[in-house]
């Protein structure tokens, strides 16, 4: 019988008990343990070991903690190795020695390529600064070559994204991509790049471009296990990815646009979070900073996202329209992303036509007064929306809408006036006007009449005459009635103007009497009384 307890080391590997027992009690031969080891060894495949040391376990991607440690036993090392592999098979891969990362994938056997893939990912975690192009040039070239080899390996379809490979890929991409942009690259005068500004390019793009390509191929990989990958492509990862949309480099934003779209499509569990995070970016842009470089790219992503919304639309989606998309018409830099914004709005109306009146009310709320270029964009968007607007929704907003259009018809900016007249060339809009001419004509007729009298631009004058001719063909009696009413209003206006003129003359006459006085006494010469009626 063995005297005393077997030490705690027996919990490491059951096969290590024999070695530890012989070390602690060299004179004892325990027949039962020897028989058990012999039976187990007879069932294991016998392979020659290439190394004489048991490698330590691999590191976890998040905390890099060791999964195991080697057991030193001079008499039973091979026994311990085989027993640990049988009891913990995962330790065979995790504990394997790392492959030299500078080797090419062509120079290693297929069994070692996955290890080489992870080794190269770890090698590329070193970030170099490109402020000095000549500094560390050899190391930069070596890293770029390793990145290219990684992309080619994934593109070939040979990569197998185990959890260790997924963790290493996400870690490498995060270290290389996630960074804070220097304040000096920010524009102080506008909310992002303007059409006249030249874009700024990141000097590290030679590395960043390949990392983005690898990340895109990773999230698009057909055999990627989403359940495992979502632990690493998590909310924090997505938030940091969204922050990169504020980059000054349009090439980077274009890559991010494609990657975020693939993530949204593949990781369905993250879709609500992505929508909420993008909404928060828009809220901050509209109501706080009015500075962001990636609004156009984010809206381009959401254009395809909105087209995939199921019917009936959720209340969450309608709130995104009313609280995020419609207020995006407010910033001065709307011209940068107006095309993408219009597409998103049109997608909503195609899904649910009743939202047309909501959108038009929002346009009227944020309608520009002094910015003619912005007004032209609003008129173009308005025409596109009116083409999809039903009769009922049109009648809800036609009064405030055509009051605003009447102001545009009279605009001194000839392009705005022309664009407003072009609405009558749209068949769908013209049908709405014809059906509701009793309401619409009295609203726009004064503007048309004022144009015929004194608009400075001949092209606008010709368009006004054409629109008036259309109304005469629709309903001549209504045109004559509107003209008579306008003449009556003009007469009343002239009488009121004359009355105001006479009143001001009497006031000026009363004010012309100057006080005359000597010492402390003053009085008016020729005091006059006048009754002033306004």
TrEMBL record:
Extent of the signal sequence? none
Write out the entry's keywords from A to Z.
Answer: Cytoplasm
Mainly resides where?
Answer: cytoplasm
Which cell locations does it reside in?
Cytoplasm
One GO cellular component term of this record is: protein phosphatase type 2A complex
What GO biological process terms are annotated to this protein in UniProt? meiotic sister chromatid cohesion; signal transduction
SUPFAM superfamilies referenced in this protein's UniProt entry, alphabetically: ARM repeat
Domain of life from the UniProt record: Eukaryota
MF terms from GO for this chain are: protein phosphatase activator activity
* Family (UniProt): Belongs to the phosphatase 2A regulatory subunit B56 family.
**Chain's role:** The B regulatory subunit might modulate substrate selectivity and catalytic activity, and also might direct the localization of the catalytic enzyme to a particular subcellular compartment.
The protein's name is Serine/threonine protein phosphatase 2A regulatory subunit
- Can you name the source organism? Vitis vinifera (Grape)
Phylogenetic placement of the source organism? Eukaryota, Viridiplantae, Streptophyta, Embryophyta, Tracheophyta
């Amino acid at each position: 019988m063995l005297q005393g307890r077997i030490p705690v080391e027996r919990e490491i590997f059951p096969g290590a008990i024999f070695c530890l027992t012989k070390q602690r009690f060299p004179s004892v031969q325990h027949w039962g343990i020897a028989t058990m080891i012999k039976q187990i060894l007879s069932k294991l495949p016998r392979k020659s070991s290439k190394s004489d040391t048991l490698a330590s376990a691999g590191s976890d991607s998040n905390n890099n903690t060791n999964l195991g440690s080697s057991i030193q036993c001079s008499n039973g090392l091979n026994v311990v190795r085989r027993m640990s592999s049988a009891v913990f098979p995962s330790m065979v891969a995790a504990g394997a020695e790392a492959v030299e990362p500078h080797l090419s994938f062509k120079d290693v056997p297929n069994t070692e390529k996955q290890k080489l893939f992870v080794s190269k990912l770890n090698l590329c975690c070193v970030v170099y600064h490109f402020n000095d192009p000549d500094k560390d040039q050899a190391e930069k070239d070596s890293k770029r070559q390793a990145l290219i080899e990684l992309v080619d390996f994934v593109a070939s379809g040979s990569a197998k994204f185990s959890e260790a490979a997924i963790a290493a890929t996400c870690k490498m991409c995060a270290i290389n991509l996630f960074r804070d942009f220097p304040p000096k690259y920010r524009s102080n005068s506008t909310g992002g790049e303007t059409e006249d500004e030249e874009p700024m390019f990141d000097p590290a793009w030679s590395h960043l471009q390949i990392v983005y390509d690898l990340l895109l191929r990773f999230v698009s990989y057909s055999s990627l296990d989403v359940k495992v990958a979502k632990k690493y492509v998590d909310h924090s990862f997505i938030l940091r990815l969204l922050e990169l949309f504020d980059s000054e480099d349009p090439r980077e934003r274009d890559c991010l646009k494609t990657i975020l779209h693939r993530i949204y499509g593949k990781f369905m569990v993250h879709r609500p979070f992505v929508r909420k995070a993008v909404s928060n970016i828009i809220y901050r842009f509209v109501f706080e900073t009015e500075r962001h470089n990636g609004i156009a790219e984010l809206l381009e992503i959401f254009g395809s996202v909105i087209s995939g919304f199921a019917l009936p639309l959720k209340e969450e989606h309608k709130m995104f329209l009313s609280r995020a998309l419609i207020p995006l018409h407010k910033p001065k830099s709307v011209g940068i992303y107006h095309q993408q914004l219009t597409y998103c709005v049109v997608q909503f109306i195609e899904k649910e036509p009743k939202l047309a009146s909501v959108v038009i009310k929002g346009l009227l709320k944020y309608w520009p007064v002094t910015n003619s270029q912005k007004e032209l964009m609003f008129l173009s968007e308005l025409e596109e929306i009116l083409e999809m607007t039903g009769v009922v929704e049109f009648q809800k907003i036609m009064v405030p809408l055509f009051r605003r259009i009447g102001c545009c018809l009279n605009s001194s900016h000839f392009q705005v006036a022309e664009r407003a007249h072009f609405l009558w060339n749209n068949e769908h809009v013209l049908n709405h006007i014809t059906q509701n001419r009793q309401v619409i004509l009295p609203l726009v007729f004064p503007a048309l009449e004022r144009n015929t009298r004194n608009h400075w631009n001949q092209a606008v004058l010709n368009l006004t005459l054409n629109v008036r001719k259309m109304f005469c063909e629709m309903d001549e009696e209504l045109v004559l009635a509107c003209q008579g009413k306008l003449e009556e209003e003009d007469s009343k206006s002239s009488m009121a103007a004359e009355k105001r003129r006479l009143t001001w003359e009497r006031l000026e006459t009363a004010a012309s009497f100057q006080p005359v006085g000597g010492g402390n006494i003053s009085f008016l010469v020729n005091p006059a009384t006048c009754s002033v009626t306004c």
